[in-house]
Known about the structure:
Number of strands: 24
Structural class: alpha+beta
Helix content: 25-40%
Distance between the termini: 33 Å
Shape: globular
Strand content: 15-25%
Amino acid sequence: SIKNAMEEVKIHPHNSRRRMNVMPAPGEQWSDFAKLESNDDDEKPREECGVLGIYSPGVTAARVAFFALYALQHRGQEGSGLAASEGHTVTVHRGSGLVSQIFTEETMQYLRGHMAIGHTRYSTVGASTLTNTQPFLIETVHGPIAMAHNGQLAMGKTLRKNLMEKGVGMFTSSDSEVIVQSIAAPPSEKETNGPNWVARIRRFMQTSQGSYSVVLLTKDGLFAFRDPLGMRPLCLGKFTTTVDETRLAPPSASPPPGQHPFVGMTAQKSPDGKVRTTGWVVASESCAFGTTNAEFVRDVRPGEIIKFDNEGLHSYEGVPPPEKKAMCVFEYVYFARPDSIIEGRLVHHVRQRIGMKLAQEHFVKEADIVVGVPDSSTPMAIGYSQQSGIPFTEGLIKNRYIQRTFIQPDQGMRVEGVALKYNPLSANLKGKRVVLVDDSIVRGTTIRKLISMLRHAGAKEIHVRIGSPPIKHPCFMGVDMKSTDELVAANCSVDEVCKFIGADSLAYLSHDAMIQAVHEEADEKTREHVINQYCSACFSGNYPLEVDEW
């Protein structure tokens, strides 16, 4: 039975979020297992969300943002939203589900203006409800503010309590509302000529700790800022558009002499009467730039505040960044799309190096093929193959159109979520000794099902190689791993995990090798410095910040 199997390897039979359903191992009966649960088909760590900001004079920004959100869908599938402004009002549309399910031509008609922010959500703090879906919109004495946030505050509960003690009403359970209410709160010092949003954002950054990449929309402009440790990614892109002069709305104040009278420094008028405008985009990942025809400019610096308005881009120091940064290393291992650029590195290349390091540390002497678990582990499997000389081939085909299913099969048709998402290539697997490469193991349930699937397809041996160290510690910085009860490596030895998942052998990449793969130039002299530039607390237990008690 499932219970006996888990007790045999000391696995906690329940966790704080999901029941541990597993596929029958060879010799077990399908009738012993529960039918599919809609939220149990993927055990991978989940990033809280993706954020996006568009400033595009003369162009309907929400339409640009809609397509960019598609590219960020992998960072959150529970809900999505857009907020747009023409400089006077802010309109928001949010919904549960995928980007393609939420926005229609009718809803896009209402999202007008040259500024927009967007968000894709997977909840870590805050229930998975429409109430917590972003962007958040609040009304202030200075006009509406909309905000979208990726990350998690280290002392979010304390900040929430402080705001409520000051009489601020809170309507959601999300950290994001804490951030926007903190910025909207009137400062102690008197402001002249309207609100100083940069100073307000700086005040928040100076008094708060945690992981955050934020886009903020006001009638005065669009803002983007990133926590001083750089824990969550945020990057900057630039694009140009040619529009009719009549489509450009005049700014609230006259521009300096020599600049175009409509959009200040962001436009140039051509002889045919067309105006060439410069647009800006900020996003959690650079993969969003392809759908906007934007060029990657740079990462938003840790502790930086960027403002976009009629005069272009302005950069401010919000908080001086510390010598030691804490970029989440899991962005390279799993979260980010392989075509994204982070810190000047193509994620695909980093994952290939991870696979090569994995082959160096844990070579399988007698194996016929290398198979990756699609999609994030495919570059690792390619790297393992290149280093080891063992041929790479596809052994699992992923159905990329399967999302969560809420249609339950009847008693005569028991279907596992993994069986819906993956199909084995029996012709490539039959009689073969397989090196199965995956990026990580959290609970062990998914890879257990995959191994069972490969064996039923005819694989002779299955040797599992993991492109990261064992995950033994919870994450409190925006990743959905809140309890050691969820982490199989926190409760079992490597041999016990190997037995539970049903593999012939199991090995993990070392922490040092993972960091070296991220920083290819890292050697013994620079290793300690490089390690201190990343948060790898889920592997090491060394947290960059103190957090509220859970």
